[in-house]
Amino acid sequence: MAWRFKASKYKNAAPIVPKPEACIRDVCVGSYQTYGNNICASAAFMAFNWEHVGSSMAVLPLDDCGRKSKTMPLLHAHSDTITDMEFSPFHDGLLLTGSQDSLVKVWHIPPEGLKESLSTPECSLSQKQRRVENVGFHPVADGLIHVASGHELSLWDLTQQKEAFVNRDHSEVIQSTSWKKDGKLLATSCKDKKVRILDPRAAAPILDVANSHQNIKDSRIVWLGDQDRILTTGFDSARLRQIIIRDVRNFSQPQKTLELDCSTGILMPLFDADTNMLFLAGKGDTTILYMELTDKEPYLIEGLRHSGEQTKGACLVPKRALRVMEGEVNRVLQLTGSSVVPIMYQVPRKSYREYHADLYPDTAGTLTYLSAPMWLDSLDHPVPNISLNPADNNCTQIHRGDLDKVVKAILSMPPLKKTEAKKTAVSPRIEDLKPLPKTLPTPDPEEDRIDFVNVKDLIKGMERQTKEPKETNGFSKKITDNGHENSTKSYECEQNETTDEKTGKTEKTVDKSDSIESPEGSMSRSNSLVNGAPTQAPKPLPRSSISEPGSADEPSEVPKPKPRTTASQISGYKPRLGPKPFSASSGSEEFSFDKVFSVPTVPGLKSDAVTSPASTEATTPVSAPLVKDSSEEKDKSLSPTSDMDNQPSKEEYINGKSDTSLEEEVNSSDSGYRPKTPSTAERRKMFESTECGAGVQSIADRRRAYELRSLSALEPPPSPSPAPPSPAPLRRRDSLKSRKSPDREEKRSSVPNVTTKRTSTVFGKVSKFRHLKGTPGHKSTQVENIKNISRQISGECNGFYANGVRCAVPLAGGGGRLGVVELPAGASPVSRGAAPPPGGLHPPAVLHPAALQDWCWDPFRDDRLMVACDDGLIREWIIPENGLQESTNEPNRIFSAHPDKIYIIRFHPTASDILTTAAHDLTVKIWDLSVDEPKAEIVLTGHTEQIYALDWSPCGEHLATLCKDGLIRVYAPRSSASPLRSGAGPAGSRGGRLVWALGGTHLVVTGFDKVSERQILLYSATQLEAPLCTLGLDVSPAVLQPHLDHDSATLFLTGRGDSTIYCYEVTGEAPHLCALSHHRCATLHQGICFLQKNLVAVEKVEFARALRLTNGNIEPLSFTVPRIKSELFQDDLFPATLVTWQPWQGAQGWLQGRPAPPRHRSLQPPGMPALSSHAASSPAPAAKPPPQKPKPDLIKSHLPTDLKDKQETIMKSMSAKVEVNLKLEQDNMEGVDESEWDQ
């Protein structure tokens, strides 16, 4: 029973939540019905679902924090919700995703992260129109992935991008999968309430089956490391959350069953096999459980819980990314609705100054010797373990390039022998190693009489006893890609198989190690490669150190750079505190302090040219004066007047730094130099002394020039090659350069002569609408809680249409129900409806016997509504002036337009009573509604597929259509029934829209490309062969609905189910589409409709007004431009606009081809002065100005000349302007009676 009282190291592991500033905030995460965790992490990045649809992903650095912009680069991965994702254990930038669109994709994230949105995968694998549930990498074999899709479990070989294994023995959907740590067996949980153990390489893959949680709700499974046990989470028959532990050797009987609570959140188990720590995060829960797993009763020991925000997803961070010098044993990334919270689990210790090896057992590394073809050929080999000790330099990020490079590295792996591959290659412990023969030299009897301990020799002897190459398995020091470069050593090199020749080499190495470190011992400090990625430690300042000579015939060795004493994770050096222990190795050797203490580098010499003082006799007398010069140079560089010294040539500088720059001295911790940052007063004094005489006259100019020099060191350097990271704190960029750099001198000389450039010359064309702002209307102007809004509408319909008085929304129910809602007062200048009832609105509707397809309001009449149904009939409804009071099924008139369903219906923009329809019969008909029985006056042909969209030009002369056959057609309907010209449109076939732009000279087309990415294309209306501009937006199934404000050339785009309205300015010059400030709504919208230009509030600088239909509300949306003088009419924003609310001519006039001159109208309200006239009247008139009195010279006014006259002048002017009141204040006070003085 003693084991019951055994104290666990991780019993008191406490969750530590950082401050909000250290979390990732303002992210957009929805609720997804998936079997995945919605977030994953590698040692370099984290990735999680983005937006409510979840088809895109945000990929951020692991240590990122702060608020995130809504326009940051995203991974537009799929066209539907991403169900699962995972990073490769051997490549921190290789990401695997699966989605509801039946596709599995592999992505490569660059080492620097996403600088722009990414939508092109490395490869795409299809799952035959089945939703993908789980994806993951094999834990041992590189290039092997597993995919669970529906009832099938498959393995894919990425080297060939082919399916290598398929199992269809599951009777229901596979909910979860997990590999054993050695990669031999796979466990699955299924919706049929069973768990299975599979060996994909066996003849009968399913080895065992057992009944599991007796509820069909989501269940998860995880293999408990190398143990023969699995753990599952799910629900029992009473809907209680349940945990079951099973031993695969007695699979039918659960080893432990634990009921938790009756919450509905799905438990996501996160297990760390190294520490046996289990974290349980429930979707929708605010608590994350921590339990420790044991191999005996009670099996699960609960630890400290974490309570915080509601969980949307969770994952564990790889052990290589932990802060081991802070006692962090695990880190959980919690995904919430608006943030990502890193929860650090820390074991409390008295001090964290040392590495606590007992908390960090060796963990699986990133170096594997097994490829996917080898594993499929029944070869096994475990992944070698690595130590998390920072001195071993194993905790580095691994980047191996794109998938092609990874595949080449996998295929270049040396083959394994089947007989030897099954052996487990366990790295030997230090205490188990036998000392190598002849490693310890015979101790000199003279040394026994030394009064102090030779610590250096003692450490050397310990290194000889524990010398062993780490995780190379007999490979040479040179490692490429996966560590499989052909070398002189064989793969299965045993320690006892050594020849005499090899023993001789070992003896020579040991003898040589008296003066330098052995190559094997410095393996972690060298520029080695792990899985094809170099892991380099930061280059410190070289130093000349003591070097004990070996034999006389051995050449002297160049001293190696010594380590820095920082605790940076990227450093692979063993930190050494304090000075080096010193002693004379032999009595004949001459003692010198130059051999003991660190000596700074020689200015002007390369680091590899610096040699040890003890290496040769010729270098010894030279080192002393050079050291003196170095110290003098360093002191001189710190002087504020050092800028006036001799100027060195630019050839001595690389990227603005010289070999004697302060940056190298900052990087060196052994030199003893600590740079002093000058104070603000010193910098100001230095600046004034060097620049006041350069022509700067005024204080304002001098201050402006001084502020221009304050560039942050966070800004990118001008050199294309990035500088290595520095352990020094962030400082001014100029302070890291040499004080005598020519670049700084040029910069200083140019500061007084800096002239402010126009913004357009730096950033190109700057739009007046760049900072447009969208503001929703007040609650009193909104229509709230509309009942039974239907979402089942056709893809060609925008779903919501309105004018300034009323709007039409689709309602759920039998047939086609179209609700007519009167807009309340304030929603638009002409709306006059009453406020809706607070309990909910059941709007009266116009009823149709067939399903709705499209509808539109007459732009010239607020009461006429035209509705098209899938029966080919068009119904005209005339709404009463006070609105529709009750539902009706009696239209004003009905006429048959097409033999089959009608897709689109639109009115003509300039002629009254002209209606356009497009239907399933691939024709476009133009109708004259001015007659009692409408008839098709014009029939346009030429379409071969379904018509997605059509739009009239602003003047009403031309009609453009977008078809499913991928062509854009432009018609002149009054001239010909055939298209004037046609051209290729978007490559995708999922729908699209188009709108005329730039006065009818261009076309803006929205659609999809081949990988379902939403695109915006700009065409010239006269040349449709190729687009002038193509802009990829994101991956979403919603079709972008465009609206163009022709006066400002502002393009508004949004889709059904989106929450963002994208804004661009369309120009005739490159880049043609200039991004403006996008507007993000608080909720998703089903449709949006822009009102006519005469309904905008010009006095509020409102240039566009829209109505937005959400889940049950209609809210006005105002787009304004910030202006200071808003009381003036901004005539630069509001030119004379085209009249679209009154017809230019009648139907017969347009059909007969009569020309109609364009009608324009100014939007300037009466009595509101224009901005241009106000600006023109503000300066003095152009005529000869009257003579003005010269302004007094304030400098000469202080001179003592004519002092009396100036005093009199000042007194007269002050007396004339100031009213003098000689009445005193106390005269207004009430007096006191004489009798009161006596009291």
UniProtKB/TrEMBL annotation:
Chain positions of WD repeats: 75-109, 895-937, 940-971
One BP term from GO: actin cytoskeleton organization
PANTHER family assigned: CORONIN, CORONIN-7
Subcellular location: Cytoplasm
Pfam family, one: DUF1899
Compositionally biased tracts (Polar residues): 521-534, 609-622, 638-647, 750-761
Annotated Gene Ontology cellular component terms: cytoplasm
This protein's record includes keyword Cell cycle: no
Family of this protein: Belongs to the WD repeat coronin family.
Composition bias, Pro residues: 715-728
The protein's name: Coronin
Location of region: Disordered: 418-448, 462-699, 711-761, 1149-1203
Ranges annotated as biased composition (Basic and acidic residues): 418-435, 462-471, 478-487, 499-515, 731-749, 1190-1203
Organism: Bombyx mori (Silk moth)
Described function: F-actin regulator involved in anterograde Golgi to endosome transport: upon ubiquitination via 'Lys-33'-linked ubiquitin chains by the BCR(KLHL20) E3 ubiquitin ligase complex, interacts with EPS15 and localizes to the trans-Golgi network, where it promotes actin polymerization, thereby facilitating post-Golgi trafficking. May play a role in the maintenance of the Golgi apparatus morphology.
Compositional bias ranges of the Low complexity kind: 1169-1181
Keywords: Actin-binding, Cytoplasm, Repeat, WD repeat
GO MF annotations in UniProt: actin binding
DUF1899 domain sequence ranges: 4-66, 762-826
Domain of life: Eukaryota
SUPFAM superfamilies named among the record's database cross-references: WD40 repeat-like
